[in-house]
Structure formats: C-alpha cells, structure tokens
C-alpha cells in the first residue's frame, strides 16, 4: 500500500483527470435531462434559468474560450513558480510545490469547466431539442465557480511562493519525520540488548535499484513475530541501493518466504516521510542559496539556521545506534547524532565562513540544540562548533564581531557544560 501511495503522489495527472471525468459525466447527464426530462421539470424550475438552443450556443461558446484562457494562464503561472523554486530555493524543493494538491485541483477545475461547456456545446442541436434547456445555467454556475477558484488561486500562489511559507512547510515535514521515529522508539522503549540471533541466516536483497523511501517497521515486526524470526535491517530511509544489495538479514527455521517489497518502498527519488537527512538537506540548501552572491539574502539563511537548531534538538532526543523493535524481533540501527550534525553544518560552515552573521547563527543554533536535546550529545555539539570555526580567520574579524562571536561561544559552553576559551588567543597560538 505504501508503494502505491508513493506511486500516486508521483502521478500528477490523476487529480486533473478525476475532475475531467466528473465534467464528462455531468455534460452527458444534463444532455439527457434536457432531452428526456426537461418538460417534467419545468413546473419546478424558474423560466429565467432556461435558455433556447441559439442562446445556449452563444453563452457556452464564450464560456469555453474564457475558461481555456484561464487554464492557459494557470498553467503558465505554475511553470513560472516551478522555475522560481528551482533557481531561488533548491531543485529539491520543487516537489513541495508540485505535490501541492491545491495547485492540481485548481487546474483540474478549470479543465473540467472547459470540457463541460465544450461537450455541452457539441450536444446543442436544434433538431434534438423541442424546448429550452438547463445545461447552459449549469455551465454558468461552473464558470462562476471557476472564476472564484481563479481568484483564490492567485491569492494562494502569492502567499505560498514566499520563502517563509516554504521554510515553515519544510520544517513541518522534518518534524513529522522525527515524530514517526519518536513514536517508534517510545512504543518499543529501544533499550540496548545484545543481538544474538539463532537459526538459519537468510538474506533479503533489493530487486531493483533506487532510494529507500519507506521502511514498514510495523509490518516487518508483525511478520517477524508471527514467524518467530529475528530480522536485522541493513539500510536506512534515504539510502541508495542497487539490485542485489542486502536489505534484511533474517534468522529462523523454516520460515515462509515473503516478498521484500511488502516491507519497504523503493523509488527513483528521496522523500521526507522517514528520511531525516533529506528533510534537513532541503532546509540547508535553501539557506545556501540565500547566502550565495546571486541571491544575497543572509537574513533568510540565518533564520533557517537558528530554526535548524530546534530540529536538531528534537532529533537529539532520539536514541541513536542499534535498538530493538517488535519485542526484540527486529534490530534497527539509527544513524549517529554526530553524523546528522556534520551533514547539517559542513556546507554551511564552508560557504558561510566569510559572513559573521552566519557564524553567529550557527553557534546560536547549536546552543538551541543543546538546550532542547539530551545531555549525552553535549560533547558532540561542542565538537561541531570547533569544526565550524576551524577555518575562520578570527584575527581578521572586526573588534565587535570578535566580541559577539566570543559571547556566543561562551553561551554554547554554558549550554553544553564545557569550558570556554578565548578565540583570538587560541588562534594566535
């Protein structure tokens, strides 16, 4: 089911196609209403809502042209926004707009309005109808609805193309991914136990290449308990696997073979549903674009960096390393916290080392992570700050810049229970 869900998300034409099918059924339905039942409905329908065939042709022809123009404008707007997302934010953020249901619903509504009026216009023949028709009134209602949708679409695009909205959405995606692992570890407690499986070792391998988009821990755990097996997960969400790469080690006796596709989902691109590295990477890339000379928007980058600290703090509360699931039937290795810190800051520290505001934001982010996270990661947070400042020429900074940077280092030392040091003297030595 999860593989089907990811497949449906990738098929963007499904939503517009659904609305088009509805419009086709509506046009056929009201064609038969006008043809067979309009005389019976006349006592219940105000005469002003009925039109003759000639007037119906004129109105529907005009509506079809107008709706086609609106559809073309909407499609052009979508392409412009996609270009902006790719050039100003990050190519990885395109999916956040492309998979937005509102966008494709609006496009589907416009297409369905055009198709309804065009098909109804095709059905308008004087030799078929002996009385007035109601299809035109329905077409006008649909056109009014399309016009309202168009106004909403303009407002929606103007609001959601702002970088602040994108950041909020990316942060929400990351928080959702973190919460899934929090729930997983909370239910299983995740205490470290010696892994010593007994039985015949069987290796499940990938049947094709791609990225691990989803691991079904619950389904795998249920399978392991039913078959009385011990299962070792060898991959993490976001890992690239090739055909034949080992995915699981299964230990047991006479267990029924089951397709490994039931336990994980492979795709051609990474997703943020369980892939924490990818979720954070998208935020980092937006920040990198912001501090690039072409965009030159360091304040946006600083806002993202500080908010990354809150996410890293939440991530720091998760248990890292190996832990057991499904009543000790499944072994999963959660990536090390230091690895997440490195992947978050190694590019930011390189491209932002010349901007004092970026360096200050990184130290502030680490302090937030320390205040929100677990004490067991204090040393790692302190070490990553040293890595960030390692290539910075402290002596070349202005006096006030040195003072503020020193203040942030002192605050981080307090937050992580470490001993602070003097930046300038350390660099000179």
TrEMBL record:
InterPro entries: DUF2254_membrane
Alphabetic keyword roster: Membrane, Transmembrane, Transmembrane helix
Segments traversing the membrane: 12-33, 59-82, 102-124, 136-158
UniProt protein name: DUF2254 domain-containing protein
Source species of the chain: Planococcus faecalis
